[in-house]
Amino acid sequence: MKIAVAGKGGSGKTTIAGTLARLLGRRGHDVLALDADTNPMLGVSLGIGPEETDLLMAVRQGVDAGHIGHEPTLEGMVDTFGRDAPDGVRLVLASRIEKVDPGCPCCGVSPEQLLRDLEGDNVVIADLEAGVGTLSRMPENGVDALLVITEPTVKSIEVARVVCALATERHPEVEVLVVANRVTSDTDRDAIAKGLDRDVFVVPEDESVADADRDGAAPVDVDDGSPAVAAVAALADRLDVRSKVSA
Ligand SMILES: Nc1ncnc2c1ncn2[C@@H]1O[C@H](COP(=O)(O)OP(=O)(O)OP(=O)(O)O)[C@@H](O)[C@H]1O
Ligand SMILES: [Mg+2]
Q: Ligand 1 pocket, 223 CB below 6 A?
């Protein structure tokens, strides 16, 4: 099953993608977390820390510099440009490199191609770049579910509206779920639900998420019972995740 996470910049995509990946990993799912942002930070929300997250980017850039060989297969990419995170999650960077070798699968690959080609028994959770770019280029069968993250602000809701419209028009087969993030009141939730004319899934504003961010840690490692983490756990229930679950 492939789940993409989209929304406006700063809406909470990485926080929610990383937390969801960790929680599904804990439930025994084989999770591949795909960082499709050009400024990859998913490693931090997954709990490998900012230094290791930077290191992963350096490995990817090493292809540009010629220190690291190209990887012609998807398995090779996941191996070389990936790293294990806690709870059995495998993190992979999909970021492009500068000097693309035409025809080389590892450096010509785009996040949307990767998402299409990553088939298997695992759950893929892709943290997309802000806005609609990746989604507008997404081929058929790129994803099964789309989480549209929005804060209760007019600008964030507007981006979510465009993302939802694009998904509905181009990918009617995809399950679209709106996540109202950083909600502090019913007024916040209603603003999003009314603005998008959709049911929304609420993730509350949570101090421990801010604490985690300050310390470069994963929200689940700071407090796995915090309101936001509990809400993401409920989101995982709601998603009806289909994948192999190891015993
Ligand atoms: N539920 C929440 N409660 C409190 N703070 C939150 C919550 N969700 C996200 N944040 C904070 O909001 C900020 C943005 O979150 P995050 O980096 O996940 O957003 P993003 O959509 O991935 O951003 P970008 O577009 O830059 O990649 C971070 O400082 C994060 O700690
Ligand atoms: Mg992000």
A: no
The answer to the question of residue 156 being in a domain is yes
For β-strands 89-93 and 82-85, DSSP reports them as antiparallel
User: Does residue 245 lie within any of the structural domains?
Assistant: no
Answer yes or no: is 244 within a domain: no
Q: Is 11 near ligand 1, meaning CB less than 6 Å away?
A: yes
Residue in this structure with the two tokens 């809400």, named with its chain if needed: 231
Closest C-alpha to ligand 1, atom 12: 12
pLDDT value of position 97: 67
pLDDT mean over 4-22: 97
- The pLDDT tens digits of the residues spanning 61-94 come to 777 777 777 777 888 878 888 899 999 999 998 8
CB distance 8 to ligand 1 below 6 Å: no
Q: Could you tell me what percent of the chain has a pLDDT over 70?
A: 93
In a domain, 246, yes or no: no
Ligand 1 and 188: CB distance under 6 A: no
Number of domains comprising the chain: 1
Cut 0.85: pTM above it? yes
**CA 173 / ligand 2 centre spacing (Å):** 25
Q: What is the pLDDT confidence band of residue 247, given thresholds at 50, 70 and 90?
A: very low
In angstroms, rounded to a whole number, what is the distance separating the alpha carbons of residues 135 and 154?
21
Domain of residue 104: give its range.
2-238
Residue 133, Ramachandran bin (φ over 0: left; ψ between -120 and 50: alpha; else beta)? alpha
Q: How confident is the model at residue 108 (pLDDT cuts 50, 70, 90)?
A: low
Question: 14 alpha carbon to ligand 1 midpoint, in Å?
Answer: 7
What's residue 183's pLDDT?
98
Of 66, 58, 120, nearest in space to 90 by CA: 120
Tokens representing 240 are 């009806």
